Amino acid sequence: MAEPCDLTAIEARRLIGQKKLAPSELLASCIGRIEAVDHAVNAMVARDFDRACITAKAADAAVLRGDELPPLHGLPIGIKDLQETEGLRTTHGSTLFRDNVPAADERLVAAVRQAGAIVVGKTNTPEFGAGANTRNAVYGATGNPFDPTLSCAGSSGGSAVALATNMVPICSGSDTGGSLRNPAAFCGIVGFRPTPGLVANERRGLGWNNLSVAGPMARTVPDLCLLLSTMVSDDARDPLATTIHRRTVRLADDFAVPARIDLARLRVAVTPDFGFAPTERHVAEVFAEKTGLFRHVFHRAVDTAPDCSGADEAFEVLRSIGYLATHLEKVRTRPDDVGPNVRTNVEEGLRYSAADVARAQALQTALYRRWQSFFQDWDVILTPSITISPRPWRELYPAEIDGKKTRTYFHWLALAYAVTLPGHPAVSLPVGVDRHGMPFGLQIVGPRGGDAFVLSVAAELEALLAGDPRTARPVPDLARLKAAQPISEMPGFMGFD
After folding, report:
1. 29, 94, 151, 155: which is the annotated catalytic residue?
2. CA–CA dist 135, 98 (Å, integer)
3. For residue 380, what are the β-bridge partners?
């Protein structure tokens, strides 16, 4: 018999509203799952069980009184450890913040609490989110739920693992070069990068830079939409946030439930590499096999891609100036307390001139305009979510792919940052497993501002593919994880070496 923690968020919330499942019962089940399997994967790194139990009992009382219940009422949630949580340690994966306990929630966390979610704990992340391999010198490495010796990607790796193992039904994350999408692909769950500004982010170091966004993660598209509907908001502290003067922007209803859409009307572009990403041959072949199973359902599905010339150069420069703005002083004053990925970005940024930055912004703008022309003929783009199959987390980053050296430590994320640069929304949807038995993620990219549209496409595909074992969402072996050795006993667990 399934445990309450194995329910989808939608189903759990329905049962809570019908007084058939108490929030405290759901929370107890989630805590039980965390205690049973987290030793094997190290996903939920800072726990707030006592306060969560108090909140759950108050949620129980609200149900019994017949109060009007908010959309996430009684649903346990994991919060990425880059996001500030009042009274709960927030380390950013850095020894500099090992004992940091914020005095207040950041906007996103306050929003999901107001919507009724119960914060269970913090999910692991690389140091300051740098790199897509979730390991740091505070909490150590997070293992893939399908094989704890392999990477879960990142930087929202802890959230993805917590979802895949049903520790919680919903989680938060953030994304610059794919940090919502990459771990979703490696762990067999759903991650969504929204249009910059849709989920207001008052803590972005460079407010006008569109690379970094916050967003939702879940096991299914409807669950993700429910969570997203509570995250969207205007906020004057974020210059990219959606706003209309003297009007309250109400966007939640646009996202709470994905609208039905006819796949047979869609014009779909299909590409394994956007013409430049270093996609592993194995991944490209699996992508062709997977899409070959369902591309016939679309009006048109053609192998083509927008012109992404200059994407590597633009992303490398624009990413590095963000690190300069946020981490330069840390590297200058306490270099021994900063890990190699952050140092590499800062050192690279110091080599660039104003002319380099101007060129990168011009390249980004040109790429954006080419994408708009491309989307006049196509409704969505399908790609693999990530260029490789999971590798051991002991490998800090892939230095080569198919025998070819990668440009940077984040070059293997090119399928994701190709979408980051023009600011289009994209979702990673689990589509079975690859030839190594590891989860395979399909990236679905929507048009400019097409967040609700691309989620509707994802929901239709999810429903279509669920009935075929070759494309259904994979599920990790929980019994194997319960019996596994603690990941903390593995060589290289703590730190970066």
Report:
1. 155
2. 14
3. 268
Work out how many domains the chain is built from and give that number. Answer: 1
- Segment holding 191, helix H or strand E: strand 190-193
Task: State how far the Cα of 305 lies from the Cα of 384, in Å rounded to an integer.
Answer: 13
pLDDT, averaged in runs of 10, over the chain (497 residues): 92 98 98 98 98 98 98 98 98 97 98 98 97 95 98 98 98 98 98 96 93 98 98 93 72 85 98 98 98 98 98 97 95 94 93 97 98 98 98 96 96 98 98 98 98 98 97 98 98 89
Catalytic residue from among 24, 29, 80, 428: 80
Q: Residue 413 belongs to a domain with what CATH number?
A: 3.90.1300.10
Answer whether 0.90 is exceeded by the pTM.
Answer: yes
Strand 213-218 relative to strand 300-303: parallel, antiparallel, unpaired?
unpaired
In a domain, 45, yes or no: yes
CA distance 223 to 333: 43
Tokens 């500030």 appear where?
A: 84
Where would I find the beta strands (DSSP E) of 259-318? 267-270, 300-303
Beta strands in 284-363 (DSSP E): 300-303
ω into 353 cis (within 30 of 0): no
Q: Which residue in 94, 151, 174, 179 is the catalytic one?
A: 179
Catalytic residue list contains 179: yes
Assigned domain for 267 exists: yes
Q: Which domain holds residue 243?
A: 4-312+356-489
Say if residues 190 and 184 touch (Cβ distance below 8 Å).
Answer: yes
Q: Can you give 377-416 as a three-state secondary structure string?
A: CCCEEEEECCCCCCCECCCCCCCEECCEECCCCCHHHHHH
Is 309 an annotated catalytic residue? no
Catalytic site includes residue 80: yes
Q: Which two tokens stand for residue 425?
A: 């929304």
Q: Edge-to-edge strands of the sheet including 267-270?
A: 44-47, 118-123, 76-80, 170-175, 213-218, 190-193, 426-433, 439-445, 380-384, 267-270, 300-303
Specify the long-range contacts of residues 282-285, CB closer than 8 Å, at least 24 apart: 282/389, 282/434, 282/435, 282/436, 283/384, 283/386, 283/387, 283/388, 283/389, 283/434, 284/384
Domain assignment present for residue 320? The answer is no
Residue 205 lies in a domain: yes
432: left (phi over 0), alpha (psi -120 to 50) or beta: left
Residues facing residue 430 across a β-bridge: 441
